[in-house]
Write a structure and sequence with these properties.
Length: 207
């Protein structure tokens, strides 16, 4: 009886077993992988096939997680920056809830500064100065309690005047909403300011 001359090459079999290309069970069970594992495997395969580099899948997953966290931090930072530029929303008073942290009513020569802005054609700043000057007049007349942290909507509630509410809406649109301003709007702001001052002098009587 002839002897069996076939012998198994155990070294070759072990090499095949450790070669991911022959891991058919993994492909059949691929549905059990999560997205991170699948993406990590794809990256590791690309490095091995294109560059001849063996990259540990766990290290790849760690790098992907770090990149994901960094991406989320960038998104959050962009959202916060955007919300810082435009704070609040429309309130029941019809004015936007913005903080006047960059504006003050003290230490300003309103007449001279407004005249300079008009001469330069800087209508955005001219509109801003008209509004702040109105707040200064209302504060001097004890119609409002001016505070740097207060919002335009709070002043609208304090004054309770439709001309002042309209004045505030124009100011907020230009100051924080990036709407354009022109000479016509500037004169409209002055008209509303005169109505608010007149109402103040009349002791808050309805116009």
């Amino acid at each position: 009886m002839p002897t069996d001359t076939l012998q198994l090459d155990t070294a070759l079999i072990n090499a095949w077993r450790n070669d991911p290309r022959y891991d058919y069970d993994r492909e059949l069970a691929g549905g059990s992988q999560n997205l991170l594992e699948w993406l990590s495997g794809c990256i590791s395969d690309w490095f091995r096939e294109q560059l001849g580099m063996i990259v540990d899948s766990k290290a790849t997953e760690f790098v992907l997680v770090c990149l994901g966290v960094l991406f989320l931090l960038v998104v959050v930072w962009l959202v916060i920056r955007r919300r810082h530029a435009v704070i609040g929303g429309m309130g029941e008073t019809g004015a936007l809830n913005y903080e006047l942290e960059e504006d003050t009513i003290y230490g300003i020569d309103f007449a001279a500064d407004t005249a300079q802005m008009v001469a330069e054609g800087n209508w955005r700043q001219a509109v801003r100065l008209v509004y702040l000057h109105t707040l200064k007049q209302l504060s001097d007349g004890s119609r409002i309690d001016w505070q740097p942290s207060k919002t335009p909507a709070q002043y609208v509630v304090e004054v309770g005047s439709e001309p002042f509410a309209a004045l505030t809406r124009h100011f907020v649109r230009v100051r924080y909403g990036n709407f354009g301003a022109d000479e016509q709007l500037f004169h409209e702001m002055q008209r509303l300011q005169a109505l608010v001052v007149q109402q103040k002098e009349e002791g808050g009587a309805a116009l």
